[in-house]
Amino acid sequence: MSQGDDGFDPMSDEAREIGERAATDPDDFLSLLPHFYRGEVSQMNAAQDRIDRTTDWAIALMGAILSVVFSSPDMPAYLLLVGLVALCTFLAFEVRRYRFYDLWRSRVRLMQEDIFANAFDPLGPEHDDWRVEMSDDLRHPTFKVSVLEALSRRIRRVYGLLLTVVGIAWVCKVTLFTPEADWQEAAELPGISGPVIAGALALFFAGVVVLAYWPADRRAKGEIHGVRPGEWKDEDDDDEELE
């Protein structure tokens, strides 16, 4: 069995049990913890950056399509439908990226709740078996949110507004910005009448609203949505600072 220059054998029983020793020795565990925490935060930040880049591309695409469609009265309204399809594609990418982001965030939040919060104010850990939960998740990583929940969150946070802007732009294009033609003619596609297209869009946006506000328990960990804002200072201190 090969060994290093210092005689350390990485395949020895002693080396194999290094993790177990760190778990039972508080000093070893506390030395290991900051490195693990920084690594998880780095993974979380990288996942957040991927989400932001997808959103940036979606906004840029929407802006480009709106600029082209409204640059001339001759531009067809169906280009906005192409934009809707493209936005839905970006949304599908972002849903998957959000689920990975929530995986890393759930680990970070677990450590913040059960270690760092307790270090600042020792009230006891939020979860008595948090180490077991973390260990199980490291051995068998799993998504913490479903596709449906991730889809709902991204629609409520970003894509609901983007899709609404494109939908309103389509209505304006086939009515206000195409005065020489009836809206039904401006909205139609080859083989599909304008009212059918309008009805399909109405059903689409109704589905978007349902997905955004579907009534179910949320499992995303560490979300601040819907939580009342906290206070760091007394109101008197805030008034003095404003003066």
Outline the secondary-structure elements:
Blueprint: H1 13-16, H2 18-24, H3 26-69, H4 78-120, H5 130-139, H6 147-174, H7 183-187, H8 194-212, H9 235-242
Helix pairs in contact: 2-3, 3-4, 3-6, 4-6, 6-8
What keywords describe this structure?
0% strand, elongated, 9 helices, 69% helix, single chain, mainly alpha, 243 residues
Task: Explain the overall architecture.
With 243 residues, this protein is mainly α. The protein has one domain. The protein is 69% helix and 0% strand. The protein is built from nine helices and no strands. It has helices at 13-16, 18-24, 26-69, 78-120, 130-139, 147-174, 183-187, 194-212, 235-242. The radius of gyration is 26 Å and the shape is elongated. The mean pLDDT is 84.
Nearest-angstrom radius of gyration?
26 Å
Q: Which residue ranges are poorly predicted, with pLDDT under 50 across at least 5 consecutive positions?
A: none
> Mean pLDDT, rounded to whole units?
84
- H-E order: HHHHHHHHH
The span between the termini is 73 Å
**How many distinct helices?**
9
Strand residue percentage: under 5%
Content-based structural category: mainly alpha
Counting DSSP E segments of at least 2 residues, the number of strands comes to 0
Helix content: 55-70%
Q: Which term fits the overall shape?
A: elongated
Main beta-sheet strand count, sense and barrel state: none
> In total, how many domains does the architecture comprise?
1
